[in-house]
Amino acid sequence: MEHFEPIRVVDVEYLHDYVMELEFSNGERRIVDFEPFLHGKYKEDLLDKHKFIQFGLTDWTLEWFNGVDFAPEFLYDHSTAA
């Protein structure tokens, strides 16, 4: 049986606007533009760039001051190669 290890975000660098470069646990660095995903009750707070940059790296992904986070698989699937 093959061993499956879930992907995680292990490093992040804020680039500009709503764009970040993420490093994933598989060693890949990828670019994510978060702007299209900042809609909905709590996510719209992050359209304020001063609030958007208030994030931290958890054990598996990014989390913002207001509890918003995105699954690492979602971020990987919606990113481009760095």
Summarize, please.
The protein has 82 residues and is mainly beta.
Rg, rounded, reads 13 Å
Number of strands: 6
What is the CATH topology assignment? NE0471 N-terminal domain-like
Order of helices and strands: EEEHEEHE
CATH superfamily: NE0471-like N-terminal domain
Distance between the termini: 32 Å
Shape: globular
CATH secondary-structure class = Alpha Beta
Q: What is the CATH architecture descriptor?
A: 2-Layer Sandwich
Largest sheet: spatial strand order = 1-2-3-6
Q: What structural class do you assign from the helix and strand content?
A: mainly beta
The overall number of domains is: 1
Q: Give the biggest beta sheet.
A: 4 strands, antiparallel
Say what oligomer this is.
Answer: single chain
- Mean pLDDT equals 95
Helix % is 10-25%
Q: Would you identify the regions where 5 or more consecutive residues have pLDDT less than 50?
A: none
Helical stretch count?
2
Strand content: 25-35%
Helix/strand layout:
Blueprint: E1 9-16, E2 19-24, E3 29-33, H1 49-52, E4 55-57, E5 62-64, H2 72-77, E6 80-81
Antiparallel strand pairs: 1-2, 2-3, 3-6, 4-5
